Amino acid sequence: MFIPTTEYEKQEMLRRMGVSSFRDLIQNLPQNLLYPNLKLPPRLTELELVREVEGLASKQPKLISFLGAGAYEHFIPAAVWTLAMRGEFVTAYTPYQAEASQGTLQAIYEFQSLICELFQMDVCNASMYDGASSLAEAVLMALRHTGRNKIIYPRALHPHALQTIRTYLSELKEVELVEISCPQGVMDIEFLRRSMDESVAAVVVQHPNFFGCLEPVDQLDSLVHGCGALLIASVNPVSLGILSSPGTWGVDIAVAEGQSLGLPLEYGGPYLGIMTCKEFLLRRMPGRMCGMTVDQQGRRGFVLTLQAREQHIRREKATSNICTNVALCALAATVYMGLLGPQGLKELAELNLQIAQDLAERLSKLRGFSLEFKAPFFNEFVLKTPAPAEQIQKRLLREGILAGLPLSPFYPELKNALLLCATETKSEKDLEKLVRALR
Question: Is the whole-model pTM more than 0.85?
Answer without folding.
Answer: yes
